[in-house]
Write a structure and sequence with these properties.
alpha/beta; seven-stranded mixed β-sheet; five-stranded parallel β-sheet; 17 strands; elongated
Length: 310
């Protein structure tokens, strides 16, 4: 790839949002480059099976779904390159995306860098992810039908996921490190009224244990300074997400959670830069919505470039 090569659009991130955008920009005959620092897929690869993506009634493996995205994007001419974006700067009438391996110039940019689930940082958490440890109840709740599960967290999302899980599990234990929730009152009322839910206050998870599957966790009561085992089929961690926006701080307008603020057409505070997927403030953290916002961003890019040509 020539250092001076110009593109119509550089898409940063090859998850569902970025690849869906690439399908549409490629099909619009826009010269499209997709940068991805690791394997295509993003957070979707943390789950074993995708059951709620339309068109696959029996479900599909996350890797296979992303491979289909990638092949379709490449079919329409998008080029995928492994490199990590470090900054974006204005260069004459173009945007320059500066990566570790070079600089990529384009008339427009789509930020689809996604977000990372916050981890507990406990022993065996990574090894048992997808084997009982999960970060998305909407994605994985049906796998724990009639089981005993725990949710870690005390905010709106944690309580919402706990309520959803009770539609499937036999018993749910809500573990919170403080003696009161941060969630809105109506969610708290629903938690306290649900007979399936038990709350462990002032408690933290110290480790996850099991062979090929989660079997138990060790819980520490921080007030009584005692640790005890808790047998579980599933552990859902719901302590927030960190959007990958560090390298655009000061360039794009972010909200208090460091998500990129976008308008309805997925445009950002800087003309020519668009955003899609989990990195934005306008996307529920689901594969289908990430893909949808990627499409919206691609259509907006096409209109933006046509306006420049006009």
């Amino acid at each position: 790839m020539s250092r001076d090569e110009k593109h119509d659009v550089v898409i940063i991130g090859a998850g569902p949002a970025g690849l869906a955008a690439a399908i549409y920009t490629g099909r619009a005959r826009l010269k499209t480059l997709v940068l991805e620092k690791a394997l295509p897929g993003g957070q979707i690869l943390l789950t074993d099976w995708v059951e709620n993506y339309p068109g696959f009634p029996e479900g599909i493996a996350p890797f296979d779904l992303i491979e289909n995205f990638r092949k379709q994007a490449e079919k329409f001419g998008a080029v995928l390159k492994t490199d990590e974006a470090k900054s974006i700067r204005r260069k004459d009438d173009f945007w320059a995306v500066v990566g570790q391996e070079g600089e990529y110039t384009a008339r427009s940019v789509i930020m689809a860098t996604g977000a990372a689930y916050r981890k507990l940082g406990i022993p065996n958490e990574a090894r048992l992810t997808g084997r009982g440890v999960s970060y998305c109840a909407t994605c994985d709740a049906p796998f724990f039908r009639d089981g005993v599960v725990a949710v870690v967290g005390g905010g709106d999302n944690a309580l919402t996921e706990a309520i959803l899980l009770t539609k499937f599990c036999r018993k749910l234990i809500l573990i919170h490190r403080r003696d009161r929730f941060r969630a809105i009152r109506i969610l708290q009322e629903r938690i306290f009224a649900n007979p399936k839910i038990e709350v462990l206050w002032n408690s933290v998870v110290e480790s996850a244990e099991g062979g090929n599957q989660l079997e138990r966790i060790m819980v520490r009561d921080v007030k009584e300074s005692r640790t005890f085992p808790l047998a579980l089929d599933g552990l859902f961690v719901s302590i927030g997400m960190d959007p990958h926006t560090d390298f655009v701080r000061g360039l794009l307008e972010l909200n208090k959670w460091r998500e990129i603020k976008v308008k309805p057409d997925m445009s950002t505070s800087r003309a020519g830069i668009f955003a899609a997927g989990d990195v934005t403030d306008a996307c529920p953290k689901q594969v289908i919505t990430a893909a949808g916002t990627g499409v919206a961003a691609a259509l907006a890019v096409n209109e933006y470039l046509e306006s420049l040509a006009g």
